[in-house]
What we know:
The chain is an alpha+beta fold.
Amino acid sequence: MARLDFDHDAFLARPLTARLATARPAVRPVWYLWEEERFWILVGPWNHVPADVAADPRVALVVDTCDLVTGECRQVVCRGEGELVPYEQARARRKLERYLGPDPGRWDERFRLYLSDAPDAQLLRITSTFLTARDLSFVPSLDSGGSSPAPT
């Protein structure tokens, strides 16, 4: 099933933070790469994702924005199957460059190790069974006093 109100590929190309939910249940913020109509997330022994996905591959992920100044409020919601796949240095680099910039010399040292084989790392590949891209944007209030819109 898909409901796509806007160009989700362009939206997902932005360096936004996603929230990944596993069946344990657990929710965690993650950086992602959107390629080949799939989400790719760097995982390893520093988090529980590999064990969670090995026990139950069902996952959910949301990427969203809510800018009270411009009124942009968009969301991409995905439910699907997570699969642990071998580490791919080139794909991991593309993901990290999205968030950290093209110059690894300026990256925090802990991210530079992924420019090599990174033997403890894997990639979580998420194939969606349900994907929506909803545009919930609104016209912001003309009130310049900084107040946010009233909840509905």
